[in-house]
Design a protein that fits this description.
This protein has 423 residues and is α+β, with helices and mostly antiparallel strands. It has three domains: 169 residues, D-amino Acid Aminotransferase, Chain A, domain 1 (2-Layer Sandwich), CATH 3.30.470; 89 residues, 2-Layer Sandwich (Dna Ligase, domain 1), CATH 3.30.1490; 148 residues, Succinyl-CoA synthetase domains (Rossmann fold, 3-Layer(aba) Sandwich). The chain is 36% helix and 25% strand. It contains 14 helices and 20 strands. Strands 1, 9, 10, 11, 12, 13 and 14 form a seven-stranded antiparallel beta sheet that branches. A four-stranded antiparallel beta sheet has the order 2-8-3-5, covered by helices on one side. Strands 16-18-19-20 form a four-stranded parallel beta sheet, with helices on both faces. Strand 19, helix 13 and strand 20 form a beta-alpha-beta unit. It starts with a helix and ends with a helix. The structure holds guanosine-5'-diphosphate and manganese (II) ion. The site of manganese (II) ion has 3 residues, from loops.
């Protein structure tokens, strides 16, 4: 996945280098379940009635206004990651989705709001819950899986459905691959009745009406195309005791290349759910992806950045990030980049690898020296400079009195960085 992200970024920064787009990447936009449900509702897709709430104080009134007759409600933590049902809060509360009596909603929401939920998809640091989605409780008699994504092989939308859902679809696909059905849709023709029927038959409905289910599938496809989705996943797509088909969960991702024509959707972006390092980098217009390793990399050029990551691996280390400062980074961008690297606690050494072409080595050197004045430098820094104004750059570094490890070439630099990180 990381490789794919990096590849995507590389193509972005190549566009940047070509001067076509000056703006940083979101790569793909992810929105909250309650926002996805609202969008689906606008398209006539059946969704449970629900309301998102940001503080426990509002809850009594919300329940009075919206759910005066409900005995039980579903309280769902809103984070931009799945697996909430089986997740655990750092405060000990088990489960990010709870079905409770109406008068218990306030109590349970109070234990979720402002707290950090850890799931299979969040990583150990978890994600903070700033809203809970309170929904009517439906009696679900059958839980299925439904998704639309973009398929490389058919170079178009692909509908994926499974008669069993609710749980981790990855495990299911591994155990019972034959249960997963896939229906490619011709992007030019659009979805046909036959396509939609194939999907519905694959879902093997127990009580819901076939023709209305076919209509729901067509509406989901319409939403997918018109909103420039890269993924629309409903797990579970459920049948209720009343024979209704409802989308009981919603995961929607959108193509960032469509941001210019999906302004309303892109306004939903929630930076509190993103990697803070990436948010800071995006602000400074740097091409950055956070990774799990211990060597912070500052490189110019996407290709060189990829090569640097590879050669670190080759020498037995792991990169903490992908960072391309670009062809014409300013000194202040270099300072920002350096701050991001040094604020990462996992970073045990920093490797600066610059090939000065359009980028001048003296600008990089001044940026590093200035950054070092602003942040306390606790880890060794290995520097390899080559190209335009390299002598000036080396002089600036030398005269700064900073303790730097200089390297002759890429191989030497990687070797020194890995050794420095393990000391
Ligand atoms: P996820 O774990 O992040 O995918 O969160 P989901 O939105 O899928 O919720 C987890 C589980 O809660 C679902 O798989 C359902 O089994 C259950 N659930 C959600 N809404 C309802 C509801 O209205 N009624 C019932 N009975 N169960 C629900
Ligand atoms: Mn789900």
């Amino acid at each position: 996945m990381v490789r794919a992200m990096v590849r995507r970024l590389v193509s972005n920064s190549l566009t940047l280098a070509a001067g076509r787009s000056q703006h940083h990447q979101l790569r793909r936009l992810n929105i909250h379940e309650y926002q996805g449900a609202e969008l689906m509702g606008k398209y006539g897709i059946n969704v449970p009635k629900g309301v998102a709430v940001g503080s426990a104080d509002e809850i009594k009134k919300v329940i009075q206004d919206v759910f005066p007759k409900e005995n039980e409600l579903v309280v769902k933590s809103q984070i931009l990651a799945g697996g909430r049902g089986l997740g655990t809060f750092k405060n000990g509360l088990k489960g990010g989705v709870h079905i409770v009596k109406s008068d218990e909603v306030e109590g349970i929401a109070g234990k979720m709001l402002g707290q950090v939920l850890v799931t299979k998809q969040t990583g150990p640091q978890g994600k903070v819950v700033s809203k809970v989605y309170i929904c009517e409780k439906l009696s679900l008699t059958n839980e299925m899986y439904f998704a639309i994504t973009l398929d490389r092989k058919t170079a178009g939308p692909l509908i994926i459905a499974c008669s069993k859902g609710g749980t981790s679809i990855e495990d299911l696909a591994e155990k019972y691959p034959d249960m997963i059905i896939k229906v490619p849709v011709d992007i030019f023709k659009g979805i046909t009745d036959e396509d939609a029927a194939k999907v519905v038959d694959g879902l093997a409905l127990k009580s819901a009406e076939r023709t209305s289910a076919i209509e729901q599938v067509k509406k989901l496809y319409k939403l997918f195309c018109e909103s420039d989705c890269t993924l629309l996943e409903i797990n579970p797509l459920a049948e209720t005791a009343e024979g209704q088909l409802v989308a009981a969960d919603a995961k929607l991702n959108f193509d960032d290349n469509a941001a210019y024509r999906q302004k309303e959707i892109f306004a939903l972006r929630d930076p509190t759910q993103e990697d803070p390092r990436e948010v800071a980098a995006a602000k400074a217009d740097l091409n950055y992806i956070g990774l799990d390793g211990e060597i912070g990399c500052m490189v110019n050029g996407a290709g060189l950045a990829m090569a640097t990551m590879d050669i670190i691996k080759l020498h037995g280390g792991t990169p903490a990030n992908f960072l391309d400062v670009g062809g014409n980074a300013s000194e202040s961008q270099v300072v920002e980049a350096f701050k991001i690297l040094t604020s990462d606690e996992k970073v045990k050494a920093i490797l600066v690898n610059i090939f000065g072409g359009i980028m001048r080595c003296d600008v990089i050197a001044s940026g590093i020296v200035n950054a070092a004045k602003q942040v306390s430098l606790k880890v060794p820094v290995v520097v390899r400079l080559e190209g335009t104004n390299v002598d000036q750059g080396k002089r600036i570094l030398k005269e700064s009195g900073m303790a730097l490890i200089t390297a002759e070439d890429l191989d030497d630099a990687a070797d020194k960085a890995v050794k420095a990180a393990s000391n």
